[in-house]
Design brief:
The complex is a heterodimer of chains A (107) and B (429). Chain A has 107 residues and is an alpha/beta fold. Chain A has a single domain, classed as Fe-S cluster assembly (FSCA) (GMP Synthetase, Chain A, domain 3, 2-Layer Sandwich). In chain A, 32% of the residues lie in helices and 23% in strands. Chain A has three helices and six strands, in the order βαββββαβα. In chain A, strands 1-4-5-6 form a four-stranded mixed β-sheet, with helices on one face. A two-stranded antiparallel ribbon of chain A has the order 2-3. In chain A, strand 4 and strand 5 form a beta hairpin. In chain A, helix 1 crosses helix 2. Chain A is globular. The two termini of chain A are 22 Å apart. By secondary structure, chain B is mostly helical. The chains are: A alpha/beta (107), B mainly alpha (429). The interface between A and B is large, with 46 and 44 residues.
Chain lengths: 107, 429
């Protein structure tokens, strides 16, 4: 699934940073795993909004993953406020894994 | 643009609640292995004797139940998609059980059914009551009621029944509170615990975790409801036969129900395995999948035990001892040895590294334990288990001692790896 955004250039930068955030159990990054749904940028108020999901609600690693997303976005958008929203609508499913992610899991 | 409000409320059960259970269970496994080593000669006699009661309760409560309580405080929120109701109740469960279990085991070991066993049993019952309340309120407060949560709740209710009956059996030695002697209730107490608690709970949690770890597309709640019904029906039929004994051939009825439930669960695991997206299956999941197959061994042995019971030969003591050993040192131990290293490293990793996540390279949770020690432990365990079983069946003390040494090595290696994970310190950047 492609990520919804209002700024393609900034979204590319954000996704690059988010590729360093791994799901520690699966060993795959949150972008290829399909956890990132939306990235929006409020230029005027310098706010980065990220809507994301987890593979399961109350995932034991959920806190690490959302902290990782915040940290990674903060590292490339220094000075901006990072707001991460968790959503389970729609819930994550296997179809959201990218072709690269599927290849990694097929190894 | 997204709504301004953010929601990253994914707070899980605190590691402080969970880790003491893991540590306690690891130490109990070691204690049980030591008791097994110094008591091998008792495995050629009757099963109802002090040292075997002490070993069984160390394994059932200190090892199996404590680690399941610990892990389930972490996993129940995943199953019910909601927070655990109370960390305080979880601490209370731990403290009560941690004091009660050694008192009870000591009472059995010296076979004094006075205050240590009575107070120990009472504290264990209160610990389980605290856990039952915690799970029940967590489920009631959650929006999602699903088959896995119902498995866990029903299993806990059976555990409470088992513990209360056990407590009555202990008091019955001194106060005659039951219509018959305590030994009479042993099969009911044991099977309510083994089938109602361990089997129902392990299947309820494993049916969620196995597809999750395999990243499998397979999901079949209807099949799980069938498994749930068959297991509960088996216990109810067993209780009915216990209360109103008829022809002994009827004892096959609950066994057939359990056998059918296990086959459906094996089918469930097989489908989850076939439809997995993640091709590589790690050693820990392999050992857990092996434990699913190991479940069939006690059931098959139980059929043989019943055949002997029906025939004129009567009870075959070594088969009954093997049956109990297959359950506690076989199936339950195998699943715990595997699942400990699929859960504990993640809990500790979460504690150590969640704030550093996304900021650079951190070790993987798998790096927190030593995989070579894990493999050696698995080899020692499988060899020790098989040798000890042959030892019980043949009555040869050399085999019992050799098997017990290997199981003691297993427990030492397990403890070493558990301590390595719990004492892990991040390297300073």
């Amino acid at each position: 699934m492609s990520v919804i955004t209002n700024n393609n250039i900034k979204s590319t930068i954000a996704l690059g940073a988010l590729q360093n955030v791994m799901d520690p159990e699966i060993g795959l990054n949150v972008v290829d795993l399909g956890l990132i749904y939306q990235l929006d940028f409020d230029e005027e108020n310098k706010i980065v909004y990220c809507s994301m999901t987890l593979t399961t609600q109350f995932c034991p690693m959920g806190e690490s993953i959302t902290d990782g997303v915040k940290n990674a976005l903060q590292s490339v958008f220094t000075g901006d406020t990072i707001m991460v929203e968790l959503t389970f609508d729609p819930p994550w499913n296997h179809e959201l894994i990218s072709p690269e992610g599927k290849e990694f899991l097929n190894r | 643009m997204l709504a301004a409000a953010t929601n990253t409320n994914v707070k899980n059960t605190s590691y402080k609640v969970v880790l003491p259970f893991y540590l306690y269970a690891a130490f109990s496994f070691l204690a049980a292995a030591v008791l097994l080593f110094i008591s091998t000669s008792t495995f050629s006699g009757h099963y109802f004797q002090p040292k075997i009661l002490a070993i069984t309760h160390t394994m059932a409560l200190g090892w199996g139940t404590m680690i399941i309580l610990g892990a389930s405080h972490q996993l129940v929120p995943v199953l019910i998609e909601s927070k655990l109701y109370s960390n305080t109740l979880a601490y209370i469960s731990f403290i009560l059980a941690a004091i009660g279990i050694p008192l009870l085991v000591y009472g059995f070991y010296i076979f004094d059914m006075g205050w240590p066993a009575q107070w120990g049993g009472c504290l264990v019952a209160l610990a389980i009551l605290a856990y039952l309340i915690n799970i029940a309120v967590s489920i009631i407060k959650s929006k999602s009621e699903n088959v896995h949560a119902i498995f866990v709740f029903t299993a806990t209710a059976w555990l409470f029944f088992t513990v209360v009956l056990g407590l009555a059996q202990v008091h019955n030695f001194t106060a005659n509170i039951l219509p018959s002697d305590s030994l009479h209730y042993l099969t009911l107490h044991a099977h309510a615990g083994i089938v109602g608690w361990f089997l129902l709970l392990v299947l309820g949690i494993a049916s969620r975790l196995i597809p999750m770890f395999l990243i499998s597309k397979y999901n079949n709640a209807k099949l799980l409801w069938w498994i749930y019904t068959l297991i509960n029906l088996a216990i109810l039929v067993f209780i009915a036969l216990f209360l109103y004994p008829g022809n002994r051939v009827l004892l096959f009825a609950p066994v057939i129900l359990i056998f059918a439930a296990l086959n459906l669960f094996i089918y469930y695991c097989l489908q989850a395995y076939k439809q997995r997206i993640r091709k590589q299956v790690d050693e820990q999941v392999k050992l857990s999948l092996l434990s699913v197959l190991m479940l069939l061994l006690p059931v098959l042995l139980l059929i043989i035990v019943i055949i002997f019971l029906i025939s004129t030969t009567g009870e075959k003591l070594n088969l009954i001892l093997t049956y109990g050993f297959l359950i506690f040192f076989g199936w339950i131990t195998a699943i715990i040895l595997g699942m400990t290293f699929k859960t504990l490293p993640f809990i500790v990793w979460n504690k150590m590294y969640h704030q550093r996540s996304g900021l650079g390279k951190t070790p993987n949770p798998k790096d927190l334990f030593n995989n070579n020690i894990f493999k050696s432990m698995a080899v020692a365990y499988i060899a020790g288990f098989i040798i000890f079983v042959i030892g019980i069946l043949t009555g040869k003390d050399i085999l019992l001692k050799s098997g017990a040494v290997l199981l003691l090595i297993t427990a030492l290696l397990y403890n070493q790896n558990v301590l390595k994970v719990i004492l892990h310190k991040p390297k300073q950047a």
